[in-house]
Write a structure and sequence with these properties.
With about 90 residues, this protein is mainly alpha-helical. It has 4 helices and 3 strands. The protein has helices at about 10-20, 20-30, 40-50, 60-70, and strands at about 5-10, 35-40, 70-75.
């Protein structure tokens, strides 16, 4: 059986990077790190957001560290089995 992946969308990734939601961080901490991922599109959106900020902005370090930890899944024709995990409502 294939293990479930938990894919973070751009908003959720931003909440985690910026430390804006202790509830989301707690849920994320309960998931094994190898089961958390981002899409290549979410990575691109995070990188685009950095281009709009001055190079010395603190988020440059935060985003780059986050991307070293969280697996980024490539764009493919056959999507992996993904379970939506968080709601930022």
């Amino acid at each position: 059986m294939t293990a479930t992946l938990h894919m973070l969308d751009t908003d959720t990734a931003s909440y985690v990077i910026k430390g804006h939601s202790s509830a989301v961080e707690a849920k994320l901490a309960a998931i094994p790190p190898d089961r958390v991922c981002l899409s290549a599109i979410t990575r691109a959106e995070l990188m685009y957001g950095l281009k709009r900020l001055p190079p010395q902005h603190r988020l440059h370090v935060g985003v780059r560290q986050f991307l070293k930890i969280v697996r980024v899944l490539a764009w493919t024709r056959t999507p992996p089995i993904i379970t939506p995990t968080f709601a930022t409502n």
